[in-house]
Design goal:
single chain, 285 residues, alpha/beta, Rossmann fold, four-stranded parallel beta sheet
């Protein structure tokens, strides 16, 4: 009987040891997750770069959906609650009015560091390769600023990301050249001019969201005169009627590329989004 009691006691003790060991393992995993730097971004192109540079050192949350125009995004109190436990907030230089210091301070996170990108010149996204390279430098500097102990990792990841970006850009430029992109005469929405120039298209004219009826007619006449075959709109622009009117009146094809990763169906990161934009040109030349 005594022997049986000892065995029973040992079994119970072993069970307790296993439970506490399991709890300890679980706690370690939670601790590792807690050590990650929480970063919040205002666009998916910044988010994509943060993931590439930060790797497993960061946890990223984005505020503005990729298919929406940032200028028309309605920032509500619940939109910025994600900042309450973040360490770093990275936004475009043209986001300043929408995400004011007063609004950011309202979440009550005194440890939050705000970094504004400088290489977008107040109007660009990081979809075009040369802009993305500058964006990578911006993001890397921001991560190093708040997490210097992982600076070497961030810098190494950044170099790899820039090399990958240049490689993809060269491959896609070759596809465009082989397709005769330089012979494509296009009228381009203002926010896609950078992409159209990079692609080597013959840009005959451009337009903005607030183009007047008279200016629209002038573009139609110019398009007919110059033999425009392609109208390039912008996914994040709400008014698609302008591009449709130009295409119909000129007799040109219309494409709608995205300025942000994940905006078009079947895309998620920068590479597949950028390649999809190139596909749209080649398939509609």
């Amino acid at each position: 009987m005594f022997k049986k009691s000892i065995l029973t006691g040992l079994a119970v003790l072993l069970m307790f040891i296993m439970v506490f060991a399991a709890a300890g393992c679980g706690g370690s995993k939670t601790s590792d997750q807690a050590k990650k730097l929480k970063v919040v971004t205002t666009s998916t192109d910044i988010e994509d770069i943060v993931k590439g540079v930060g790797g497993d050192k960061v946890e990223v949350a984005n505020i503005v959906p990729p298919g929406m125009c940032p200028g028309h995004f309605d920032v509500k109190p619940q939109s910025i609650q994600v900042l309450s436990d973040a360490s770093l907030f990275i936004l475009h230089s043209w986001d300043g009015d929408k995400f004011s210091d007063k609004l950011i301070e309202s979440v009550g996170n005194k440890n939050l560091v705000k970094v504004v990108t400088t290489s977008d010149d107040g109007k660009y996204t990081f979809m075009v390769p040369q802009a993305r390279i500058k964006g990578i430098d911006d993001v890397t500097a921001a991560l190093v600023k708040v997490d210097s102990k992982n600076a070497d990792t961030y810098k190494a990841n950044a170099e790899k990301l820039k090399n990958d970006t240049n490689k993809i850009a060269q491959e896609q430029k070759k596809r465009l050249e082989d397709a005769g992109a330089s012979k494509i005469k296009a009228i381009v929405f203002a926010y896609q001019v950078g992409f159209a120039k990079w692609a080597g298209l013959d840009i005959v004219g451009t337009y903005t969201p607030d183009i007047s009826p008279n200016k629209t007619k002038e573009l139609v006449d110019l398009g007919r005169q110059k033999g425009v075959t392609l109208i390039i709109d912008n996914l994040q622009t709400e008014n698609k009627a302008i591009a449709s009117t130009l295409a119909k009146e000129i007799g040109a094809k219309e494409i709608v590329p995205s300025n942000f990763p994940g905006g078009l169906p079947g895309t998620k990161g920068w590479s597949d989004s950028f390649i999809k934009n190139v596909d749209l040109i080649i398939q509609n030349k």
